[in-house]
Structure prediction request, 268 residues.
Amino acid sequence: MFGLTIASQKGGVGKTTVALNLSYAMARRGWRTLLVDTDPAGAIGLSLTKKLSQAPGLADHLYQHTPIAGLIVETKLKGLGILPTGKIPADESERFTNGLADGAVLKAIQTAAQGRYDVVVYDTPSGFVGATLGAMRASRYVVSPVQAEPIAARGVMRIFEVIGALRAKGHPVELLGILLTMLHTKTQSSLAVAEDLWKTLPGNLLFEATVPRDPAFLEASAAGVPVGLLRRRPPPIAMVFDQLAAELEARLAPDAKDVANEPIALVD
Ligand SMILES: Nc1ncnc2c1ncn2[C@@H]1O[C@H](COP(=O)(O)OP(=O)(O)OP(=O)(O)O)[C@@H](O)[C@H]1O
Ligand SMILES: [Mg+2]
Prediction:
């Protein structure tokens, strides 16, 4: 069991889209995945159903100590559960994210989910404050989406400073990779950002999978589904998250992987 935080300095770069679609892809690959929404705006609930956005969730655990097990919403995909944010009054967002900042409550979710889930994915509000820092403190890994546009890319180094600072204080969190999102494959400036990051980021930190800008994401959020469920035959873009999940798996430390690695016979 390990925690995986999706976090970025900048807002609107596709964190929630990545958290949802990656969780779906991981669950399809056999990881029992619990997606936890730590954004007081309830982003995951808003991307799925109205029912989910009004369901009790993390806030009820934080304030009323409602046990986590009773707050997890099972999805129709076996092995994918969602812990929604719960209802938070508009003027309580700060109190909510500050309540999660030390990571203790978010870490305790992993203990409560032990045995039922293999990975807990945290979607976070933008910026490295409150719930986002809490999720990173509770996680072994971070994936940071960066929008393929010049201004967004300028802030990319901040994630290294934040992770460095957390590690210096004894949190064993690691940056698993940076994911380019909303790449305009036909726009020179967007491609230039991709190329620049490719050249400047250390090692193989940039995932080979990139998320192109694609209207299927808007369609999927309007329909309240991950892109893989948009149609009976999923659009090509859904494959990006299968690729990302596979790449991510390859980067996990051996103790995080519990799947056997032998070939599977097609016929006996
Ligand atoms: N690759 C993409 N192509 C087109 N639209 C996208 C893509 N990724 C996300 N979007 C859309 O862009 C908007 C912002 O995405 P999303 O909510 O995932 O970003 P976020 O980083 O979670 O934002 P916030 O910082 O507010 O939490 C949403 O309407 C989403 O549907
Ligand atoms: Mg979001």
Q: What stands out?
A: The beta strands are 2-6, 33-37, 73-74, 80-83, 119-123, 141-147, 174-183, 211-212. The chain has one domain: 2-250.
